Each structure stands twice: as C-alpha cells, then as structure tokens.
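// run 5 | inverse folding | seed 20
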C-alpha cells in the first residue's frame, strides 16, 4: 500500500527503513521525503512507524 503518493513510498519501504534502524519520523523524512509535499501521508506513516516499533519492542521483551 502506498503511504506517500507524492514520493511513491509504500508501507514496505517504511518497514524496511525501520528494520534498518529508523525510529523517528525525522529519519523517515530524511530517507524518503515523507511529508515534504502535501503532508497527507504523515499520519499514516506515523501509524506504520509506531506499529512496527511496538512489534520490535514486543519481540525484544519476549526474548529477554
């Protein structure tokens, strides 16, 4: 699914960036220019970011 149509950024792109270490919207902006055009993608991108970070935190908690 496309999150940012202006810059052709999909949820897969965002998830890949998070797996590579992106943990903030600023990091996603630097890598993908999310929110640099119309800004309508920011809310959806933030949801994807938060969900992925929660998944990572849950797996780390279960391992520990």
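// decoded
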């Amino acid at each position: 699914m496309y999150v940012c149509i202006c810059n052709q950024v999909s949820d897969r792109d965002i998830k890949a960036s998070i797996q590579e270490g992106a943990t903030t919207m600023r990091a996603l902006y630097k890598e993908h220019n999310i929110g640099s055009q119309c800004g309508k993608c920011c809310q959806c991108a933030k949801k994807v970011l938060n969900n992925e970070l929660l998944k990572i935190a849950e797996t780390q908690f279960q391992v520990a």
